[in-house]
Amino acid sequence: MSVHDAGTERLTDATAGTGFRTGRPDGPDTSRGAGGGRRRRRRGGRGEQPVVPDATFTSYYGRPVVKPSPWEADIPAYLFFGGVAGGSSLLAAGADLTGRPSLRRVARIGALGAISVSFAALVHDLGRPRRFVNMLRVAKPSSPMSVGTWILTLYGPFAGVAGAAELTGNALRRGWLPQRLRPVARLLHAAGRPAGMVAAGTGPAVAAYTAVLLADTATPSWHEAYRELPFVFVGSAGAAAGGLGLLAAHGGDTGPATRLAVAGTALEMLAEQRMERSMGLTAEPLHQGTAGRLMRASKVLGVLGAAGAAVSAAVPQLGRWLRRPAGAALLASSVCTRFGVFEAGQASARDPKYTVVPQRERLERSGRATT
Amino acid sequence: MTLTTGGVPPVRAGVAAAVPDGAPVRTADPDDPARKSGWDGAPRRKGFFTDTSICIGCKACEVACKEWNGVPEDGLDLLGTSYDNTGGLGASTWRHVAFIEQPAAPARPAVDLGMPARHRGSAGPGADRTGDTAGASTGPAERTDFRWLMSSDVCKHCTHAACLDVCPTGSLFRTEFGTVVVQDDICNGCGYCVPACPYGVIERRVEEHGPKNVGIAQKCTLCYDRLEVGRTPACAQACPTASIQFGDVEELRERAAARLATLHDQGVAEARLYGDDPDDGVGGAGAFFLLLDEPEVYGFPPDPVVTTRDLPAMWRRAGVAAVTLLAGAAASFLGRRR
Fold first, then answer.
1. pLDDT at A166 over 50
2. B307 near A CB under 8 A
3. Secondary structure class of B191 (helix, strand, coil)
4. Closest CA to B197 of A213, A347, A142, A68
5. Which SS3 state, helix, strand or coil, does residue A58 take?
6. Domain that holds residue B53
């Protein structure tokens, strides 16, 4: 017992023992982070931002407390394409009902393509892709990934039928299809509208649930964003779907795409600003490194795209050459938003500061802190 | 997977239950996780109490865990972090011994007088400490005494387990012992449990770790196979100082409280329990600890909360957002025809 006794004796004195303290002044990573925060406040002049506390904190050799997700580019790509698909199915249904055939065509085929890529990305990301079907052995409301899988399972076939109807419809009309396939194509054509309506009904869920997918984790910059992230994501989805319409539909049909794109961009930006205010310290990674560059690019592209779309609608002469680049900018902005939010979360998990400091503050606020 | 325990087949409620006469009756605790998961007639909840005040850093637990569970090697690196060359828990590290070298603070005034801190950094005594041995760079006369904290970390087997909540395949499940276990043959490696865990325990195994269960989420099973035949988990069995204690969680909580009281009586004021409180953010951990410093010193989150606690609010927000998108898209078709 001598080890124990000696330890106890020593411990009697060591009442303020601390471990590995990082943060200012000598922690290179965190001091850079804090500097970034200050720079941001000065440049943006956002006096309403909550003051980020002096982040002196303790960690175990600077190692992360939580683990970053093992996900790679598949998942942010999946978020983006899911948004494009969901938003496009809405545009397609509206175009179908209001007689805008070129917008309907672009949106239906776009939704089919996007949801296919999205699904492929989801499967590819798995550690054991062949076991994807195991997702379908349970339905768990407590798992956003389970819920999302079932949403996709519902949405996918209907978006698929609507897209296939569009792909075969043209060939059918022009008599390009062999005799044998014509009944199938006619059936698809008949099913196109009802299927498109179901896809439009479930599309918003496809676009919105991905925010919950990220937020329902211990990753600081995802979880703390849970209040506003769904609005950022549906805004981004609307902007992207509108962008696709602008990019590929005939000029005369693009009115709704323009309005959806402008409104989506506005919603995304407003929600993003509110989100950063409510996130406190964990908003910091959205301004740093790769995530920071992506989020800035997203804003610039979004503003340019939405402005271009609005100008195109107001001045048709300009619109002829302006609306396609505007549409492309809107799509690119949405890509940047998804990758930016994704990367910010990953960065927040890698730095113990974003786990320890907010939790320590929570303890102190609630009076549960031990020292 | 065999859902039986030595001689006593516990069953899920709803499944034709045939608990034999004389089977141990479960604790009446309504919050018992196994009971809440539908187990009927299951044994008492099992867990670990890790008393870090008597850990000697021998790493026998790490070795025993690897050996018993066939956990592959995951890198032979020198990390430069005291005697810890393991780093942290992960797919192929289910027990991890942390080593923290701290200068033992010299006798301090009993009351904080609000004086400027002695050390650079002004964050109180010890603010500028690094992982270096205290006093290593000074002459013998100036060398200070130091203390060495050691702690064996493990999966917490939370009462409200985020990994289990978010698993989309049902691969992670609650055993009859109240523990949380991955079924290797079900997991499809979606990786969702990894960022969900508030302690950073579970991880997807990668190729370099060897051929076994690559791409699948891996973590401590609390030696499910050993529990089923009434044995002690390998790490607790191997621990030479009884720093790792295995048993019924209820009893371990009492033991932990008693040990804490003893240490406080001996003047070890900084001793505190971590993870034993059923009212904490994870509903109490099945594996809890007695620590001699703040949790984050050992790499623990100071106030972990199961992320799914906010999930109803998240779904509500997402629902409103989805309706907003639907309404916005509908509205974009109104107005002047273009």
1. yes
2. yes
3. coil
4. A68
5. strand
6. 28-102+150-310
C-alpha to C-alpha distance for A56 and A25, rounded to whole angstroms: 9
Is residue B142 situated within a structural domain?
Answer: no
Domains and CATH numbers, chain A: 74-355 (1.20.1630.10)
* Predicted pLDDT at A170: 82
Residue B138: pLDDT band (50, 70, 90) is: low
What token pair was written down for A136? 């379908």
Give yes or no for a contact between A30 and A183, defined as CB atoms under 8 angstroms apart.
no
**Is residue B84 in some structural domain?**
yes
**Rounded CA Rg of chain B:** 24
| Residue A69 contacts B, CB cutoff 8 Å | yes
Q: Please give, rounded to a whole number of angstroms, the shortest distance from the CA of B338 to a CA of chain A.
A: 6
Euclidean distance between CA atoms B180 and B169, whole angstroms: 14
Residue B70 in contact with partner chain A when CB distance is under 8 A: no
Report the distance separating Cα B198 and Cα A226, nearest Å.
16
* Exposure letters A153-171 (e unless 16+ CB within 10 A, then b): ebbbebbbbbbbbbbbbee
Q: With the CA atoms of A122, A124, A126 and A129 taken in that order, what torsion angle do they form, in degrees rounded to the nearest 10?
A: 110
Domain count, chain B: 1
Q: What is the pLDDT of residue A280?
A: 95
Considering only CB atoms, B162 lies closest to which of A218, A349, A355, namely: A218
Q: Compute the nearest-CA separation of B115 from chain A (Å).
A: 15
**What CATH number did the domain enclosing B83 receive?**
3.30.70.20
Helix (H) or strand (E) holding B228: helix B224-228
How many angstroms away from the CA of B184 is the closest CA of chain A?
11
Contacts of B269 in chain A (CB under 8 A): 15
Contact yes or no for B335 and A349 at CB 8 A: no
Tokens 């997918």 correspond to A213
User: Is it the case that residue B124 has pLDDT exceeding 50?
Assistant: no
Residues of B in contact with A356 (CB under 8 A): 296, 301-302
Report whether the peptide linkage leading into residue A28 is cis, meaning its omega lies within 30 degrees of zero.
no
Q: Residue B329 falls within a domain, yes or no?
A: no
Residue B272 φ then ψ, to 5°: -150, 155
Tell me the per-residue pLDDT of A40-82, one tens digit each, with 9 for 90 and over.
Answer: 333 334 444 445 555 588 999 999 999 999 999 999 999 999 9
pLDDT at A10: 33
Identify the three-state secondary structure at position B103. strand
Angle at A222 (CA atoms; ends A219, A224), nearest 5 degrees: 100
B-facing residues of A in 96-125 (CB < 8 A) are: 97-98, 125
Q: What is the chain A residue with the closest CA to B56?
A: A3
Asked if pLDDT for residue B113 goes beyond 90, the answer is: no
Q: Which residues, 6 or more positions from B269, have their beta carbon under 8 angstroms from its beta carbon?
A: A15
% pLDDT > 70, chain A: 84
Across residues B229-256, what is the average pLDDT?
Answer: 97
E strands present in chain B? 11-12, 39-40, 46-51, 95-103, 146-154, 172-174, 180-182, 203-204, 217-218, 244-248, 272-274, 287-291
Q: Best mutation site among A24, A30, A58 for testing chain B: the one with the most B CBs within 10 Å?
A: A58
Nearest to A89 by CA among A176, A154, A22: A154
Strand, coil or helix: A124: helix
pLDDT for B150 beyond 70: yes
